[in-house]
Protein 1
Amino acid sequence: MKSAQSTSTQAGVAIRAAVAAIPRGCVASYGEIARRAGLPGRARLVGRVLGEAGAASLPWQRVLRADGRIAFPVGSRAFREQVRLLAAEGVRVHRGRVDLAAFGWDRDLDRLLWAAPRPGRRS
DNA sequence: TCCTTGACCATTA
DNA sequence: ATAATGGCCAAGG
């Protein structure tokens, strides 16, 4: 058979590997996954691949939009499912959105801890 | 073959 | 904060 869906292409394999690598309790954006998969600028392809069959065994719930919001319509079946799965691994979702500074995979901890404005450093 | 759609994103206003 | 725009590119009609 030659049904070469995106999930069986090289890109698909790389994307799935990147998603599988997201640590439990963390989240990453579609764009970030694309970048890690060696496909910068192809966030939409990530969404497509996750939509295809085979994503069931992946931690797809850890993939969010760049602003931390869930990519499904609020209240939809997939939306509720994603919220449930994330909550199950300790990721807090508030109003369909996750705080990337707190749960983001690539968050820079140093910058986060020192985020408080220091006196004498610009306003 | 052209056109539309989409689990997206960065920039600009 | 929201809205419009252009880029991205694989599927499906």
Note: Residues 26 and 78 of chain A are 19 Å apart (CA to CA).
Protein 2
Amino acid sequence: MIRTVSTPRKHPPERRRPGTVSIRDVALRAGVSIATVSRAVNRIPTVDSELASRVWKAIDEVGYLPNTQARALVSGRSRLLGLIVSEITNPFFPELVQEFETLATSQGYEVLIGSTNYDPARTESLMRRLLQRNVDGVAVMTFGVEEDLVKKLVEREFPLVFVDAGPNLPNIHVLKVDYGEGIRQGVQHLAALGHRSIAFISGPLAQRSPKVRLDAFLKSMDELGIHVPAEHQVEGTHTMEGGITAMEQLLALDKLPTAVMCSNDMTAIGALHALYRTPLKVPQDISIVGFDDIHLAQFMLPPLTTVQMSCRSLAVAAIEALRAGIEPDHPKARQKEWLISTRLVVRQSSTFPRGSLPAMSHSAQQRHGPAR
Amino acid sequence: MIRTVSTPRKHPPERRRPGTVSIRDVALRAGVSIATVSRAVNRIPTVDSELASRVWKAIDEVGYLPNTQARALVSGRSRLLGLIVSEITNPFFPELVQEFETLATSQGYEVLIGSTNYDPARTESLMRRLLQRNVDGVAVMTFGVEEDLVKKLVEREFPLVFVDAGPNLPNIHVLKVDYGEGIRQGVQHLAALGHRSIAFISGPLAQRSPKVRLDAFLKSMDELGIHVPAEHQVEGTHTMEGGITAMEQLLALDKLPTAVMCSNDMTAIGALHALYRTPLKVPQDISIVGFDDIHLAQFMLPPLTTVQMSCRSLAVAAIEALRAGIEPDHPKARQKEWLISTRLVVRQSSTFPRGSLPAMSHSAQQRHGPAR
DNA sequence: TCACAGGCGGCAAACGTTTCCCTGCCCAGA
DNA sequence: TCTGGGCAGGGAAACGTTTGCCGCCTGTGA
């Protein structure tokens, strides 16, 4: 016969970690029902304040911590956010991770971090993990989105945040980084110093963001009517190694550029290192400008002139966009695009080209004059 | 009257994310019970192979992914590991995080990363978060454990992994880094080159690991019968800024040391930067030796001689130790200590002191001879 | 004093699993 | 043919919450 009456289990398996306290213990102690405890914990205003304080007292006494998985199971929201970066070992990303994490946790979210390392298999498993853990939303901060990854995420109707570009669908938010502004400032800064021969070391051009940065550079140069010969566009890898290799390529040219802009700071740092090995001095013989403004940049020798893209703004926007997607009545639920501005930070790796005495103001000359 | 009979709820709240499939859907499709699906998914061998393949087919067809929170709720194991580091922006840690994450996820665990930033409030909230999420174990890789943090964790009887030292309790595993070996190699390397005046820039000595490193240095020096004057022991912060400041302190001395060992690579890099600003050349005028062997070290100018502490070994040991603590019948469940070795990596930031012509073999002279 | 309204708080369903227990089937042995 | 044993698979309890529904209590107005 089928057992229809509730027969209590003989040997309930021992699972609870010692010291774990459930809502039931609190309810018992406070002399209320578990429903009331739950409502008190969630600060539902209908619960009587005297009762609530009794509950809070009990919570304190027994050391209760709500079980997140049970919460997530019933509420359907895990309060987990996914953060996908290209490679955690690139110094830009830890800074971003740090900001993102600080903000997320202060708002009651936990962060699962994944690093794709540009490896499709890794990305694939990362996606599966995020789906299984039921993340509430994912920020894809890879600066070069893999198409199939996007598709997988999109069909689950996840709140998603991309950088630079993403499919135009509901629930997809895009952080539009205004590369143009910062890069134009950089180019104009160099041009004002008298540079006419400016090379660009890009990132891997198969990815979207490096491509956009290169285009912004070319556009700015074009606006000034300066031609960029093909040999002055070198493809790097957004790593220090790539910067070294690319700079060596430039050094092998018959005619060196007088300035080099780089698609990110690690590339610029690589370029500096390649130059240290030559008799050439930075900035007197060649000016270097980076992009990102990572922490390391200001400690370079000379301190790196670079275009700042604020990690903090990126993180703030990403979290806000995600929450807008997660919470149906968020004030900005309809907003699709979030603008991130960039701006030039002038340090000492850029000055006027040797031999040229540009028409510049006294103060500018002081500021950009050769260091040491 | 109290409702005792199961009255179906009128308006069940809509929670499931579209596209989400539960075990019930699979069971329906395969024409089996959910118990069988569960058993098939968990590869319980008693389930008939024909049935199992029908279940797997159904899983594939409906795109089923097990819900981790439900699993965790019932099994009492979240398959989440906590990883606590001091500061994620210190380049050593991302490398560690990367290794740890790769290993953990390949074994079916997810990683929650927390960065204490040496801030007790941050640490406190971090602990609460980890407890709420019900992590199966925590690796505390901060190289300087806050005592109250330890206590909190210990009383929950968590599997815990510490670096260097931890309370001697069940469930607590300690990764013993053999600083002595690597640091002795470093000191002997310098001594063999002819150095007798070797300074040490330590980390923050309030923390345990920096203290141990300093002691290892002093012990090695003592073994060689070399006295270390107090002014040759400078306290840094394990950051580049700290390295710069500490090196400047050394530079202000009447009599410079001929070599400087540093408690970590970032400090050494800071020291290099401080030296770049002087006429002194590394390694001809002063030798610098780091500790950690972070990725950046080999790209310094000159490439940094340093003591390697392998991130990979640390991560491997940490994960293995955690699993030993989590899984009751793990082969190494009883092992308390895990040894991590260190070794010197000679690059080009160390050579014989100027003016001294040490008795050394021809090959050694070639190897350590002044670069450039 | 009674009727009624409003709101606090308790009961129990539901979330998606795992796993205990038990049934029913199959097969071997007598 | 009957009995017994082994075992595959199904039913349902349990994990710790949130939340819909409803009862009871209190307060107000006639």
Note: Residues 303 and 348 of chain A are 5 Å apart (CA to CA).
